[in-house]
Every structure is written in C-alpha cells, then in structure tokens.
Fold each of these.
Amino acid sequence: MAEGLDVKGMEILGFLACRSTRGEGPPSLREVSAAAGFRSSRSAHVHLRKLEEGGYVEREPGRARSIKLTRRGWSAALSETPLLGRIAAGRGLEAVAVGDEAYSLVAELLISRSGNARYLLRVVGQSMLDAGIHEGDLLVVEEHESPPEGTVVVALLGEGEEATVKRLYREDGQIRLRPENREHEDIVVPADKVRVQGRVAYVIHPPRG
C-alpha cells in the first residue's frame, strides 16, 4: 500500500479512478462517503483532507464537486494488474506479447458481469483518435469472440497475428476494421483471416508528463 494510505483512503482513490475512467464528473462529498461506507460525510472529509495533504487528490477551494486525482493518486489507486502488452491503433505491430512492464488498475474495472476475462493493453498509434483513444492510453479489454457490429475490438490479423484496435463490421464473408481517424484507411480482410480477441470495455487516460 502506498505511503500514508489506509484501506479507506485506497477505497476513495479507487472510487475516484473508476468515475474518471467511466467519464463521470467529480463526486460530491456525500457520494464519496457512500462509496467508502462511512456513516457521515465528516469522515469522508477527514480522509479527503489526508489524501490532499499527501498529494493524492486536489480540490478547488469553494467548489463542491472539484475532487480529482493527481498523478500520484492515479499511481496509488491502481493495483497490481499486469499489462499484457501493446496494441496498435494503426498497423505494423506484432501480436500482443507479455512484457516486463507492469501497470495497475482498480480491481472493479477488471470485473465483468458476463464472467469473461479482462486484461490491459497499452495503445500505440493514433488511428482511433476520434473514438477518444490516444497513444499511451490503456484499454481494458474483455474477451469476446463475437461482439456486436460497431464494437471497438482488439483483433489479430493473418498468420503473423498482427494486432490492432478498430471498430468491427461484418460484410459478406469479410471483416471490415474501421479506424476513427480520417487519415487512416479501413482494413478489409476475409473473415477467416481475423481473430477477434475481445471488445474494449473501458479506456483509461493515464496522466501525462
């Protein structure tokens, strides 16, 4: 556990990270209190003050909904989930390979209601910019062999198993993998030359700089 943090502090950081990843705005003090299981908002206030003093969160004075994680807070909130590899938002990258880089993610994001396994991949390339997926982002990928049309998926192409992340469409025995960037072209290949690994469940934008 990170320096100066207790279990409740970690729960609050995890809650903030989950909200941010899902695109939700900063929570109220009451929401933080409920998420951490406190009986009163006063306890949440005390823990938030400790987190702020420790450099894990920051708040704007006078604003009720201004709690957000700092870079240190993100690092602490995420917990020992292995990063399995890198995925090309573009082309030319070999298939996902286990590396020695490790990242972490709030455990809740890796729990799938469907029971399918989830894992992390880091994005390389810019072909999915218009879908809000940037180079360096982390994808929470849920294993799924046959996701619906229009789903953003991780797919392996050809015998060399080149991996890419694109939007999936099926057309007369072929698979169209569509980028979300006008500078990139669709990839159209026979269906038997594509292996869909899973769908993108969440996109995480790690702090830059």
Amino acid sequence: MYVSVRVAKEKCIGCKICLSTCPEANVLLYIKEEKKVMVNESRCKGCGLCVTVCPKEALTVGH
C-alpha cells in the first residue's frame, strides 16, 4: 500500500496546476461545486509531484 497525498481544503484555491503534473490517471479530481481538488486515495502512489507545484502548499504526502 502506498502513502497518499492529502489536500488541505482550506488552503486549496482550485488553480488545478496539480492536475497536469500527476503521472497517473484519475488520481487528482477537480470538484466544480467546491472549486477544490480532491485525491482518489486508492489510486495515489504518493510520488509527491503535485505537492511540489502547489502554490498554496495545500497538498502534502502523508498517511
């Protein structure tokens, strides 16, 4: 089992930059109603690429 990326929704501004950096399909999803990103934890491998590009540090690698 992998360690997943977590989203701090209070920090996420919905810029969607992280969506284009994830090498796996359907891991990061944009929720229109909330204007936030969410992580499909069952698909996330915890590589952390999305964490490095988030301008608001809303993404972290954690358990």
Amino acid sequence: MTSAIPRTSRRFSWSPAARLAASVGLLAYFAAVIVPPLAGPPPASDLAMAALQPLRPLVGSLFLGHGYRFFAPNPGPGHSIQWTMQMADGSTRQGSIPDRNADWPRLLYHRRFMISEKIAAFVPPPDAPADVRQQSRGDWQPLVKDVAGHLLHRYGGAQVTLQMTEHYLPDPEELLRSERGEAEQGRDAVTPLGTYALAGANTP
C-alpha cells in the first residue's frame, strides 16, 4: 500500500511582462558595467561617449564609472605630488603623494595615487602656453589647496610647497637599455603647484 505525497510546492513561472522587464534590467546593468571603461579615460571613441550619456544616472548611482583602461592595455605615465613643508621651528619636512613606503595597506596607496592622477588631469604640461596654464589654475588650484590644507593640519607646518611630477614611461627598448646601464636619466616632467600657508580661518 502506498500513500500519495502531497504537492506542496508549485513551480514559479514568469509572465511575459516580467521576463521583458528582467531582461531590460539585466541588459541595462551589463551596459553600465561595460560602457564606462570604453568611454573613459581618453582616448575614447565618439560612439562610446554617445552610448554613455543615457547611462550616466545608472552609472553614477551604482558607482560604476571606473577607468579600467587606466591600467591596461596601454597605460600612460604616472603622476605624483612632492611636497616640502616648513615647520614652525624652522626645520623642513618632505613627502610624496602617494608614498609607497608609508601608505599601507596597499589600498591606501591606491587611493592616494588617484588623488595625484585626478589633479594631473587638470594640470597642463610645463611647456604649455602661458595663457593655457593660467586658465587651468581655476580647475586644479582648489584641489591642490585642499591637499595643502590637509598636509598642514596633519603635520602642523607653517607652509608647504607642492609640485607635480609626471614620471616618464619608458618603452621596451629603453627598458632593455636600462638593464645595460644605457638608459637616459632625468626625463620626468616637473610642474610647480605653488606654496600655501594656513590663513586666519585655517584654510590655505
């Protein structure tokens, strides 16, 4: 004698409208993941930039605007900010943003590396025309002031001088020459960013 097992579960089925909504949502999410790396950082195609425009609200809300092409397949030169601080007792203190020896864990180094790269995107090269360099100050100087203010508050300095260094990126042949001791030296580009001190309101 056998007893019947009651059917307590019922297979869930999607309605056509639900399938369509889920498919559109998945496609929009995949597009929001794939398109931002194609559209930035430059160089980027006009097609990728046009495809990014309707996705900007979704990309911004989900924080998907990552520049993966910054690292591969063809990364550009890296940037760092060197600073020299005059202390109240007359001594000096120096540092770099980022600092691979002091910024630990590695994620902290990466975050500070993004600071220097963000500022570098607004700073023209030292050989740029004077009017271009002057017009760009309104873009990068507020960011540099924030960095200077943070450094002065952190270390208790009287004033700090900053400069941007674009580290030369050698090609494969130059790397081979460097192994033989034949590489050229001193090819980094240095751009002064100014000297800052805390004002009465404790802002540089």
